[in-house]
């Protein structure tokens, strides 16, 4: 490798050669996406068919001389676009606030001299120095290693640290997690030090390749966007049909052509629910605000509603399902099994033996085991605000320090010990040893590591306060203890100790960690987040499949999935290697049964998401590492972690969780379903009113009656009914049963057959009663102005009643509904009783008898509505096969 890169491994590159290569390779960073301007955000809001339809309606209104209506539609479009831009701008600002502001540096050897440079200036062939706490600035190959361990979770998804060593690999196709001589950009050195050769920078690194994969993933229209575009097309043809039918029918009924043409066009424009996009946008915006309070930042509004269709949530494990805070849960000596309460990096907890709290200092074997864990340890714990702590170093070692604190042995008590010598952890030996002296200048050897490695060095065991010779029986017991812990997803460490009578000048001699005394085992795990088990239960109840995708080994992943009720008895656990062995058809057959994918790489995550999409599932994908970004962008709803997530992942997502908690995803799904249900309420309310207008005018025109509503009255009805009451329906709070029904099927439109039936039945009932009130008044009084005023008042009153019926909430829960209806009712009364307004809309005042007739009409309306629902339901049942009940 050094020959290929033409590098002196001792002196590094010369400054001149580094400058030459920099001109060739460029900055060691990912290509930056050009930020969108406010103008591009604004223009993007017009990229939908329904907005184009509204613009067309505005143009037609202008041609007909209806300047006020044309201006009103343009104002509505402008407000919606501004709201959309504001939401996207806020999301971009929130995203910027999450990004790292500092530029990392690297220690590089150039011209034989160590120097600090910005990591963006590194080039292939540079020789860099690494130590604990460093972030690896590029893809590098180790030249020298002194116990280096790296956390690669952001790249491979594996939660445990990985030991690295200088080693030649014969297999070039090894998974990233198994390339022990390579360190990758963005990973963290948590232990040891070393020297490494830079082999790739910028977009040529493994993380750069993943970032480049994002360009191959195209964003799809959300189910809601597809539905809106389809609805707009239906409305367009419907309006053309309405205009033609009304005009032709009116002319055949004896009305003047120009009058009927104007009425037909006005009705067609009025039939367009221009408030639809407004209410949708505002409903989504309110949902976004509620989600922000629940720790979810939404970057694109339609993503909220898409959550209502989600059938599969693919989630990583570390930090999402688990706390990403390793915790000692159990200690086992040869004669005691001790449980430790408390989770994460909090020192609150108790040691329990036989369900009783104990004091560790009273048991010699336990005290020595904890002492070994505290002193054979390079981690540090820094106290933060409250009861939280921040670790520096290996999470496993930090977990041991927290366990020591919980035991009642303060870490300050170990300050009397001095580290005299250390044998660093080695991947081949699988153990670490520390030699310490105490205040009396006595020497002690403490060791920790894999069980088999520690047992090889032990000649005796400690049981309570006795040291006994080791035997096969004891070894079998220890191995059985280890297997039991491992089967419960615990990471197991063995600890050993021996007193040393050597003098300090003899500490470099070999064999220091032989003839050790076995003390016991420590079992630790990254505990599940609080509430995650309940959240997964909610998902299952709601018909949502939860799939865990992790870099952990198969057995570990399965055990953790079982502990949170994610993996069921009939569920399948599939490794990345097994996944690659399946062809497309085999994967399609198996994908519905798989609940856990283990030991996966970025390409496989993308393959998994695509396989679910191919089966017709709406997929949400969560993640934090760069390795998750392509799959997050491919998914219908990409969800990134705000705390632990990388910039690349957050850029690719549509929703960001500021608390990195799976439970927040479930709350977001609940919000999405609420918005979906509110959209249906609004659509039912508005379209049934529009259908009633069309029906009443059409029936009047073909029967030779005068037109019940003139254009100005049609526009006023739309203003009164489609405005504030419709908005109040869009903010209905969640219903109690919202997570007890299956997801909305995205294959079928949000405007499903049931919703269409309700629009038609209500529209017919309202249209017939409006025509009846108009015809009855005209027949009894012969006053056309009064009859049209009655039709106007009846239609608005029916819609006000319908607003209450559409909302499933009480007025106590939806506090906006009653004021909204009151305001609209006030506008209706003002247009009837204020002389100047009544003159504009060609209406006159109504008396008490008129209002009693309208009251009777609304009563008849409810009966007619029920009748038409029953007729359509019976018809539907007759056409439906008898194998099931249709709701």
Q: What would your notes on this structure say?
A:
It is a single chain. The chain has 887 residues and is α+β, with helices and mostly antiparallel strands. It folds into four domains: 2-31 and 105-201, Calcium-transporting ATPase, cytoplasmic transduction domain A, CATH 2.70.150; 222-295 and 667-877, Up-down Bundle (Calcium-transporting ATPase, transmembrane domain); 308-322 and 530-660, HAD superfamily/HAD-like (Rossmann fold, 3-Layer(aba) Sandwich), CATH 3.40.50; 327-525, Calcium-transporting ATPase, cytoplasmic domain N (3-Layer(aba) Sandwich). It has 30 helices and 28 strands. Strands 10, 11, 12, 13, 16, 17, 18, 19, 20, 21 and 22 form an eleven-stranded mixed sheet that branches. Helix 22 (647-652) links the parallel strand 27 and strand 28 (655-657). It starts with a helix and ends in an 8-residue tail after the last helix. InterPro entries: ATPase_P-typ_cation-transptr_C, ATPase_P-typ_cation-transptr_N, ATPase_P-typ_cyto_dom_N, ATPase_P-typ_P_site, ATPase_P-typ_TM_dom_sf, ATPase_P-typ_transduc_dom_A_sf, ATPase_P-type_domA, HAD-like_sf.
